[in-house]
Write a structure and sequence with these properties.
Elements: H1 33-56, E1 79-85, E2 88-94, H2 100-104, E3 108-110, H3 119-132, E4 138-143, H4 149-160, E5 161-166, E6 169-174, E7 178-181
Parallel strand pairs: 1-4, 4-7
Antiparallel strand pairs: 1-2, 2-3, 5-6
Length: about 190
């Protein structure tokens, strides 16, 4: 036997068995690619669900396509259409149960006062509409192009409710709390 043969011992002094003489288990390699794909998708959906729950907390109306008309259809109900621009508020009413002449008499332009919109006069006018049509609660707000966000919010606040005193008792009366924002179609 040339070359000084004999058995060649593996590095570390073991010959495929452990200290008890048992066969050593085969080395295991895990392929974690599929697991990482699942976890990354799960993380994405958890973040999306969390974002959705935050958005659900915002109280806003979203226009939807429906077979049902959103125009008021009883004698005690109208929908207020309010255009807002640099020239003030332009208020008009829409309803199916009223005559055009009856609705036209409510058309009113409320000009700005002191360089700002006249929110007090706007609220007072909506109160007079609410007293005539007590079941009304919807207003379609159409801002002029370039209108400040702050003006829109103040307009919606002015239309939401007002203080009224009945028999010496002051309380909040809802005016037109349901506001639908619209745009002018060009």
């Amino acid at each position: 036997m040339s070359g000084g043969g004999g058995e060649v011992e593996e590095e570390g002094g073991s010959s495929g068995s452990n200290v008890f003489g048992e066969e050593a288990p085969a080395s295991v390699t895990l392929n974690l690619t599929a697991l990482m794909d699942i976890l990354s998708n799960l993380l994405f959906f958890l973040l999306a669900a969390f974002g959705t729950t935050i958005v659900m907390g915002i109280n806003a109306t979203v226009p939807v396509q429906s077979d049902k008309s959103s125009i008021a259809d009883t004698k005690q109900t109208v929908t207020a259409g309010v255009s807002i621009g640099k020239g003030g508020f332009d208020v008009s009413l829409v309803g199916n149960a009223q005559t055009p002449e009856e609705l036209d008499r409510w058309r009113k332009k409320i000009p700005p006062r002191g360089g700002d919109q006249d929110y007090a006069a706007f609220t007072a006018y909506l109160l007079s509409i609410k007293q005539t049509y007590p079941k009304s609660d919807t207003m379609i707000l159409t801002p002029e192009s370039g209108m400040d966000y702050e003006v829109l919010v103040k307009s919606m606040d002015a239309a939401r409710e007002t203080d009224v005193t009945v028999s010496g008792v002051s309380r909040q009366l809802p005016l037109f709390p349901t506001v639908v924002l619209s745009t002018v179609i060009k």
